[in-house]
Design a protein that fits this description.
mainly alpha; 8 helices; 0% strand
């Protein structure tokens, strides 16, 4: 890679690292894993930097690398893990209701398959359009819509399941509006 491109990559990382770390944090729940994910994606992108003709698409390229890397990690996880019927109580107490809602929503997003989680993150947190999400994930717009629909239904099912398991109305009252807001937003986008 030419010296000028190395400097260009360094400048890109310097200016975009906070936004990219937020994206990584939304893809994996652990902050340390998110940093590892971003670092791995940056190393892989550095090796291909000169091949990215339109540098305005670097964010989309890097997000795709993060999603692929996260998927590789998920597939390579040890099979010794034993799924349980009941999720551990890992609520994060926060002084603001918004942070509590996000923490709870991130907790229930763990039940989604990697593809579903990627679609939800890109559509709702990254505010990408259906077409942008489809391009970033290499799928059709219809697949993005159906995957998002199934993911939101799965999140609602998880909320109902937690309520039945006695984890309290307090969780449902905080999480359900967040999921409902995602579904309403998606219906409005589809109608537009």
């Amino acid at each position: 890679m030419a010296h000028g491109e190395v400097l260009e990559f360094e400048e890109y990382v310097r200016t975009r690292q906070d936004a990219l770390l937020r994206s990584a944090r939304r893809l994996v729940p652990d902050p340390v894993d998110a940093q590892d994910l971003l670092q791995t994606a940056l190393v892989r992108t550095y090796g291909r930097w000169d091949g990215i003709a339109d540098k305005r698409l670097a964010d989309a390229y890097l997000r795709r690398v993060m999603i692929n890397t996260r998927t590789e990690w998920w597939r390579a996880r040890k099979l010794e893990e034993v799924p349980t019927e009941q999720m551990p109580d890992a609520r994060v107490e926060d002084s603001t209701e918004q942070h509590a809602d996000r923490a709870l929503l991130m907790d229930i997003m763990k039940v989604l398959a990697p593809k579903q989680r990627s679609v939800v993150v890109l559509r709702h947190w990254e505010q990408m359009s259906t077409e942008e999400t489809a391009a970033a994930l290499g799928m059709s717009a219809g697949t993005v819509k159906s995957t998002l629909h199934r993911a939101l239904a799965r999140l609602r099912q998880e909320l109902e399941s937690r309520d039945r398991e006695g984890q309290g109305r307090e969780i449902r009252d905080r999480e359900e509006p967040a999921i409902g807001a995602l579904e309403r937003e998606e219906r409005e986008r589809c109608a537009a």
